[in-house]
Write a structure and sequence with these properties.
Blueprint (H helix, E strand, L loop, with lengths): L1 H25 L4 H36 L5 H34 L15 H8 L1
Helix pairs in contact: 1-2
């Protein structure tokens, strides 16, 4: 379950970047290529919707089974505990992302940074022609 959640979360988190990349590529495409990109975008969007529906159905089934014996007050308390735990995990995830970014941008002395190579403007302009 956690693996599915992480996979879906990663997939959803990267969707805007994937769609942006495809949109930028569309600027230098023929009409047939644009149609294919639009179809790919629709497919990616439909796939994300299916993953979200599957995840929600899975969580609903799991929680219905696990909490069938709890009273409303117990469920409310469990929800508060779950939200507190989620807040702590998200806070640490944010801190870990900032640490990773800092480590990437501030390499050790005498080391080359692990940044992707810059794309010269000439190559971008040639791709548009």
């Amino acid at each position: 379950m956690i693996g599915k959640l992480l996979k879906t979360g990663f997939s959803l988190a990267t969707m805007p970047a994937r769609l942006t990349y495809r949109s930028v590529r569309a600027l230098a495409m023929t009409p047939a290529e644009v149609s294919r990109v639009l179809a790919d975008m629709r497919e990616a969007s439909d796939q994300a919707v299916q993953e979200i529906h599957g995840l929600l159905a899975s969580v609903d089934a799991e929680m219905t089974y696990k909490t069938a014996h709890l009273s409303a007050a117990d469920k409310r308390l469990a929800a508060e505990l779950a939200l507190d735990a989620a807040e702590q995990h998200l806070s640490m995830a944010g801190i870990n992302l900032l640490r990773a970014l800092w480590l990437t941008l501030n390499p050790a002395p005498n080391a080359t940074p692990n940044l992707p190579p810059a794309v010269p403007v000439q190559r971008i302009e040639q791709a548009r022609k």
